[in-house]
Amino acid sequence: MKVHQRLFIFIVGVCWAGQVQAQTTPQVLTWKAQTTYNAYLVRELQEAYDVRREKLTQAQQSKPAMQAYQAGVKQQYLNVLGQFPEKQPLNAKVTRQIKQKGFRIENLVYESRPNHHVTANLYVPEGKGEFPAILLMNGHEMTAKATESYQKTARLFASHGFVVLSVDPFSQGERIQLIDEKGKTLTRGATTEHTLLNAGSNLVGTSVADYMLWDNVRGLDYLETRPEVDKTKLGAIGNSGGGTQTIYLMAYDDRIKVAAPCSYFTQRERYMEQAGAQDGCQYMPGEGALEMADFIITAAPKPVLILAGENDFVDHRGTLQGYQELQKVFTTLQQPEKVKLFVWPDGHGISQPKREVAVQWFRKWFYQDTKEIREGDIGSLPEKDLLATTTGQVTTAFPHEATVQAMNLAQFQQLAPQRKAFMAEPNLPMLQEKVRQVIGFQPNTNPVFTEQSGGSQVKSYRVEKQIIMRNGELPIPALVYFPTGKTAPKKLIIRLAENGKETLVKNDSLIQQEMQADHVLVLADLRGVGESKDDPKLNDAKYMSHEYRNAILGLHLKRPLLAQRVQDVVTLLDYLLSRKELSTLPVLIAADGLYGPVVTHATFLDNRIAQAELQNTLTSYERYVANPLQQNMYSNVVQGLLLQYDLPDLVSKIAPRIKHNTK
């Protein structure tokens, strides 16, 4: 009998333990939420582009209306760009000349900024100039200007009466920025380096695309110094990432008279929906509803040829739809013949048929010649023959080379007085409002409501599973632990873990410690963390960010992830403190990892947080600027934040309320 009693007690105990464990599982949401955050951001993207489409449709009613639309788009673009530096001497130097049939190649270095060297090849036709000139902006191949298809593009143009300046984008060719002591790249390729450098660039108010644009503007300046060049006939062509540079340049610099982006043009809205974010040089934060077509529209009705591969990974339906928009715009401007789409049934790249049509297009507008072009056996040279530096890399050839990361760090240091002046505002509410504006935080005042999806109770505490909701925001899954003793709760503790509340639920000793201290404990996942963490398969590892696509969408929409998560903290507080039994409790937030900057901002902006304790987290954005080889930087990047303040500046204002633990 005693044996049976023990067995019965054992079985009941096991069942009860299993029941308790099942009841306190970390899952709160009643649906799978891995793609919920991205879907939320894509909806915002679609809404922004819906507004843009309506404006464009209205502009098509008349030529003056379209010209007003163009002016508005141009101003939006200039606002996104910000300020460029004053032009300094180019200090251009030709390091080698190579004679070819019908033209010569000059290996060239110039400084787009002081000690920031651009390597290039200049192709000069035989004969008496002046000749039209083409700026050739190359795609993401590491060989850049020495890539065979780009060489053949330049050679074909030069053989038909064009001076061509073929430029190495930085992070490629002879311009790798992140290298070891032996001059070898520290990243897996150009797209990774562009993306890592872009994070620090964004923080100091610029972007990798901005840097490239300025390199190209200075390339046009160099072309204008050459006696062989007709300064009134400058054009631009680029493939892939060079196509991005082409439309940015033609929209910015009125000297470009004819352009041809290749294997790039589509609709950004469709591409971001379907393929997610591209690398860091493909966007400028804050573009919002600007479409790829808008950059071309800004320059309309200058002649533009869209070169596309029907089987390109670049969304071809978007190419066709974007081209239809351009046709309507050029028709409204009464010059429909100046826009053309050439599609070849190949994939990505500037292949021979595209090169031939491109040269024919530029000859039509610069030479009034419409004859067909045939490339033939045009040849190419080995990469070593096209090097402009003695070592093959500007970072080793020039001892004082100003790399992008070094320029970003210098800018951070130069901004110190500006940050000090910003933080000198004596009125705290006014300063708080200025910080909200910097991060793009607009408080959502819609009512908070909840849905309890479960709960459980053990001897020392009970648990509620609450889905906290607010119209316009993502639901917040939270576990709320209440001690069941006779003593009234003393504190409200909110714990946020970078790896999700699941890691905290497993820490029974932590939960028991809080319950014994008579604390109400809240374990929550803010958007993009834990239950709503984005599917890692949808974020390319080369970008070194587990939520890269959502981060880029946020920056694009002027809603950085940091600001969105600050909103989640506010929503969490609004709900918890609306409960009568919690309304008078002091609030302490403990957080780690990517949550650090979020909680720092939330504590600065919301006086309801009595204390914040942060662990293993970013303490200054200088770290990202000085060393771009960091994981998950984009989770907390805010465009231009370091123009106004850094994290220690906020902490200094609320020092008694915030503490960093070093353990």
UniProtKB/TrEMBL annotation:
Q: Which GO terms describe its molecular function?
A: hydrolase activity
Keyword terms: Hydrolase, Signal
Q: Name one Pfam family in it.
A: AXE1
What the entry lists under InterPro entries is as follows: AB_hydrolase_fold, AXE1_dom, FrsA_esterase
Q: Does the keyword Signal apply?
A: yes
Q: Which residues form the signal peptide?
A: 1-22
- Which parts of the sequence belong to the Acetyl xylan esterase domain? 98-270
Q: What protein am I looking at?
A: Dienelactone hydrolase
